[in-house]
Amino acid sequence: MATDNKYDRQLRLWGANGQKALSLSNIVLLNATSAGTETLKNLVLPGIGSFHVYDSSAVTETDVTSNFFVTSDDVGKSRAEVTCKLLSELNSDVTGGFTHADSEGFVNFLRAQSSRSALVIVSDVPLSQLQDISTFCHQESIPLISVKSYGLIGIVRLQNGKTPHTIIESKPDNSVPDLRLANPFDELNELVDKFELEKLDDKDHSHVPYVILLIKAINLYKETSDNRHPPRTHDQKSKFKNLVKSMSRNFDMEVNFEDAVKESYLAYTSKEIPYEVQEIMDNTSDNDVSANSFDVMVKALKRFIENNGGLPPLHGGIPDMTSSTEYYVALQDVYKKKSEKDLMVMKRYVNEISNGTDITVPSEELVTFCKNIGNIFVQSHRSISRELEQQLCPENNNSLQVDDEIIDDLVMSCMDPSSPASQTPLLWYLGVRAGEIYQRQHGYFPGSQTNATSKMIESDSKKVQSILVKLVTNMKLNSEDLIQTCIVASNDIASEIVRFGNCEIHNISSVVGGVASQEAVKLLTKQYTLLDNTYIYNGIASIGGVYKF
């Protein structure tokens, strides 16, 4: 269908609520590198509210070769100003701003406008500075994305702040409809009783919704069953399916009965509250101080379930099914009214819980919450500063302990290498980190000096290899076969890191920008689950991987 709404296609992904969240967001980018501007470009196009580019650099000839948002005419000009101007031209709905200043003042800049920053993106930031930014954003619960394009390697790292990231619309690929056939509510039973199948003509009989058929069938099954219980064993479930078939007049010609047989499990299976949702409620107490509207709604949900026989508020929607318009609308109306009734109860609980606080829960947010009870999700990321504390141990000889869960995850990753094993993204992440540690120690990236001699390159390679071996030892990965073979016993990765010289290649930056902006949209809209917590792209072999650090 033709439309004059330029956001039409993306609205089909994240809806009006998601688009509103984007339009109210303010994004801050530190360093308008190729990867940084590619990320920001992909956020300006779908319509964020505003952005601000903070950069101390002037445009160089090197920028021109990798960054589409500068030209040769811009060499010598403020990179922040040039990229801000060109990015602003992409979408008239978005307001852009820039600051040309030393990056050492970036944390103070964020502190001055922390209430406005919905998301911070940093690109190619030295490790010591990245630690400071990470610590500040974590304490202020400002989401942070670090992007890096290093030769043929791209890295995206997420950090969602001290307050866990809450997701109301995780939108799983597969979800079971909330029809309550195993626990029908009174209004639904009343509608079912109105259908007298034996009195319907063949046309109407073939258009009775499977919801009605299954409730009638399960009631009949219980009446004729010896134990008067719903089917539990395989034989009992097969018997129930045959019972549904026997209720049809011509099974091969009645699609609604075919639907009923296909969905027969709904009649004897109660939709359980997912483990993740139960865990969220278990970690919430009425005595806790509510931090935000999500906390209030979770407390209200917990109270609702306790007072409603263990059942959450009804979703209210029904899937497509074989039915006449009259029957479908009648069924739809019953579910809609029941969901509205449950919503009113939830509103009462929300008002009781939020009374005396400054927290308000908008009606549309509560409606969305009630329609996604089974899909709410909470994610926490270890801060980048915590990760770096442990990884930088080789420099300061501290003996910080790595989280056991992190160790276990990385060890498991080492046991499942890519093919060939030497191209496993984890290895190249470690190589890039070694290059960054080298820069921290020497003030420049290995292999990046102009007019470097072969002797200097060889020296850099040996130093990076030494750092890399210390890094994997400090991360307690040095005993893994993959690490022993590809890092400890080989300097191939160290040599490539030196050869890259921290240069940016636009096609790698494009991949990084695509992944980072996708995760940024998830953070801003609070829809879909985030990657946890680092994406690494190996452009040598076109292999990507997600790892937890």
Describe the structure.
There is one protein chain. The chain is of the alpha/beta class and 549 residues long. It has 23 helices and ten strands. The chain has helices at 8-23, 34-44, 61-66, 79-88, 106-112, 127-140, 186-194, 202-205, 210-224, 234-246, 255-262, 275-282, 293-306, 325-354, 363-370, 384-391, 393-396, 404-414, 425-442, 454-474, 481-488, 492-500, 506-525, and strands at residues 26-30, 50-55, 95-100, 119-123, 144-150, 153-159, 165-167, 377-379, 534-538, 543-547. Strands 3-2-1-4-5-6-9-10 form an eight-stranded mixed beta sheet, with helices on both faces. It has a two-stranded antiparallel sheet with strand order 7-8. The longest helix has 30 residues, at 325-354. It is elongated and about 95 Å long.
Keywords:
two-stranded antiparallel ribbon, eight-stranded mixed beta sheet, 10 strands, alpha/beta, 549 residues
Order of neighbouring strands in the sheet with most strands: 3-2-1-4-5-6-9-10
Whole-angstrom Rg: 29 Å
Annotation field: number of helices: 23
Shape: elongated
Q: State mean pLDDT (0 to 100 scale).
A: 90
Helix content: 40-55%
Uncertain residue segments: none
Structural class: alpha/beta
Biggest sheet record? 8 strands, mixed
Give the helix/strand layout.
Blueprint: H1 8-23, E1 26-30, H2 34-44, E2 50-55, H3 61-66, H4 79-88, E3 95-100, H5 106-112, E4 119-123, H6 127-140, E5 144-150, E6 153-159, E7 165-167, H7 186-194, H8 202-205, H9 210-224, H10 234-246, H11 255-262, H12 275-282, H13 293-306, H14 325-354, H15 363-370, E8 377-379, H16 384-391, H17 393-396, H18 404-414, H19 425-442, H20 454-474, H21 481-488, H22 492-500, H23 506-525, E9 534-538, E10 543-547
Parallel strand pairs: 1-2, 1-4, 2-3, 4-5
Antiparallel strand pairs: 5-6, 6-9, 7-8, 9-10
